[in-house]
Specification:
71 residues; mainly alpha
Length: 71
């Protein structure tokens, strides 16, 4: 039995309203993950451009090292 199957078996022991709340939460989380994955996949061109700009700025001495103690 997978962990997911075990979780669903436990969830079936909950009252129907709690099962519905759990299902709503899970479905919303899965939908959110799919949207995030899609947006991230669609943004690769932009991320490549931004990365190239950052490297150029660094190579031109326009950046400074981040000091975590000063954040």
């Amino acid at each position: 039995m997978t962990k997911l199957e075990l979780a669903f078996a436990e969830a079936t022991k909950l009252p129907p309203k709690e099962q519905d709340r759990l299902a709503d939460w899970l479905l919303a989380e899965l939908s959110s993950e799919r949207r995030w994955d899609q947006r991230f996949a669609e943004s690769q061109d932009v991320l490549e451009i931004l990365a190239a700009e950052a490297i150029d700025e660094h190579n031109q001495g326009q950046t400074q090292e981040l000091d975590p103690e000063k954040i």
